[in-house]
Design a protein that fits this description.
homodimer; 379 residues; Tachylectin-2, Chain A; five-stranded antiparallel sheet
């Protein structure tokens, strides 16, 4: 049996019987309809699984519907309680056992300039270790843990630094999870499938380093599965959105770059796909994130051709969502809205998102409103 | 018809009737048996295809046998003739037409610190544009052009900066070419197949950015094709050798890192696969390149499990080839030996290699000699 230094998963602190009417908050500068109950989930709502640790961030959930409930697959990032004068961080070994590495803060070979990364003698580690926790809701607002569905933990050497930011799609009665595998050898896209959120089948890494933000389309175009993904390049190229093709979801080819960063715009530094594209009459609608050089993460939209989704029909000139609520401006890594999951109800997209890399929120969008910004006459 | 600013491919300057006996040169510090006729090919041996251009480098050939001859698929890198005070470089547009961009050398937005890359306003270009030229030989030493087999030119927007460093394997009577596609959106691995070296079938990009050094195994292990490849990571990870699996050569999955760089060794900065692994009784023998932080490129070997080649059985502690001949030390980018092609004759591997990113050479190795360095008793 796999040996973990994880605690038992506790039941939720959240009560399931709060029935708060959904309220929307409209802020200026974007077309997001934030709900009044934001933030829905924060680190203090759950107990850490690692000994002597805290939950530093709760973020970027995959979203799915299961047995009549809304499910979020939260990314939970834990960190050892820090002792004054020292820095410590978790790393998993090849037997899936967590070890805590500890250094004196003043160590000359240590670089702590980034809140997310620890550099020691030129080798990079993460300050936190992430896993994926499913939580459920009857109303899409109040979420609770379900002991029948324990957390999904990192496994194997290419997940030694954790697993992050999972997208979930349902194809042929199975849930398909694409997520970020993180280790010292690189950051790539893992693929897991499940039917019951208890038994998981692992299919290895489907996009090699450096890659993340992978969203599989929920249906084939013709005979072909498509996925958006986000390779990063150290030299030519950058942090751009690409598309790939597959016949079996396991093996991928015919990679094409479909959306680069745009000089001088809100998405000049990096872009990446959100959740699976939404099929509309006008094309596949993809909500993506874009960041500028100040690390301000906004959301925008892409419209892709229905038959050949490698063709971009339209792209947001201005973001459809800009961090501006207080919980979006301040947190573990402020000025960030980031989504990788939603539920579609007719014209309404219920978007769950991570705010400031710390809390989980929800905002709703109207598909028509987004399409209007993409297809207005003056374009 | 595709419009090119290429000249007609001229016939070779090489005479086919020189019959020089093969001689070997043994240098200290490695087990490479360099042939006396090195360098076999240099830029002056061919005429450039672009107008007003020179061949800057001739390098890194893929190697194959075709109709009783040895074929090299040379990488030819051309550059416009430079005018004093200006820097100019070629870029291909979406209609496969070459344009020459020219800037004043003193332009404040220009960065010319790397011989291979031009940076202008933060966007990177290459100083040269590469294509692939087949040449043939009856003796493995004297090579000549064959007008029946014209050069393979870049095509499409993801090859706008050229195509480079092709590996060739023969599977099921077809030649399979994996090479580097270079453009502003990134560097990835392209795949082309041919039966006759005249008609080429293009299969798109099989490994997305940032990736190169892809070598497909010449036979399946069980039901699975394998390929080595070399993604590069801007953050965690680095320039490491990975392996991937395929059922059809077009779509690839189950990516695993099998060889990282090694701190303090000759391959501390970057490693990448050479040509297809050689099947031996002891395992798959792969000759790879490794570089240190001074950009000194040597060759080493990996021994991979015959049934599961993601398992590394042995790895060179010391390089099997170190740049030391004069043509390996001085050139367009000196101190480099780099191979991506060979012919195997019993125990002998006839390795063709690029030296100093400028000329093409040959060295022979003994498989037994390499295996002895890998499997000596004290390991």
């Amino acid at each position: 049996m796999t040996k973990y230094y994880w605690h038992e998963s506790p039941n939720s602190n959240h009560s399931n019987d709060k029935k708060i009417a959904k309220m929307e908050i409209m802020l200026e500068n974007d077309i997001a309809h934030r709900i009044e109950q934001n933030p829905l989930l924060k680190p203090a709502d759950f107990s850490p699984l690692m000994e002597n640790s805290i939950i530093e961030c709760l973020l970027n959930p995959g979203v799915f519907e299961y047995e009549g409930r809304v499910g979020l697959l939260l990314r939970v990032a834990e960190r050892p309680v820090q002792k004054e004068g020292f820095v410590s961080f978790p790393v998993m070994d090849e037997n899936n056992t967590i070890h805590i590495l500890e250094f004196e803060e003043s160590h000359p070979d240590l670089d702590l300039s980034d809140a997310r990364v620890i550099s020691y003698k030129g080798k990079n580690y993460l300050t936190t270790l992430s896993y994926l926790k499913p939580v459920f809701s009857d109303d899409g607002i109040n979420f609770y843990e379900d002991p029948n569905h324990p957390p999904l933990l990192p496994e194997g050497k290419d997940e030694a630094y954790g697993i992050e930011d999972c997208r979930v799609v349902k194809i042929d009665d199975k849930f398909h999870l694409t997520y970020t595998k993180v280790s010292s050898t690189g950051v790539g896209v893992g693929y897991i499938s499940t039917s019951d959120w208890k038994n998981y089948e692992r299919h290895g890494m489907i996009f090699p380093a450096h890659n993340k933000d992978c969203a599989i389309f929920e249906e084939k175009c013709g005979e072909t599965y498509y996925a958006l993904h986000r390779p990063s390049s150290p030299e030519l190229g950058g942090n751009y959105i690409w598309i790939a093709e597959s016949k079996d979801l396991l093996h991928w080819g015919n990679h094409k770059c479909i959306a680069a960063t745009r000089q001088g715009k809100w998405d000049c530094a990096r872009v990446g796909a959100g959740a699976a594209p939404i099929k509309t009459e006008k094309g596949w609608l993809e909500i993506y994130h874009g960041a500028n050089y100040d690390h301000k993460y906004c959301l925008g939209a892409l419209l892709l051709d229905l038959e050949d989704p490698s063709i971009v029909l339209a792209r947001s000139e201005e973001p459809i969502m800009v961090p501006q609520a207080e919980y979006e401006l301040t947190g573990f890594f402020g000025n960030v809205v980031f989504t990788n999951g939603h539920i579609v109800k007719g014209d309404q997209i219920q978007v769950y998102y991570g705010a400031s890399d710390e809390v989980v929120c929800r905002t709703d969008f109207s598909i028509d409103e987004i399409l209007n910004t993409l297809l207005s006459d003056d374009k």
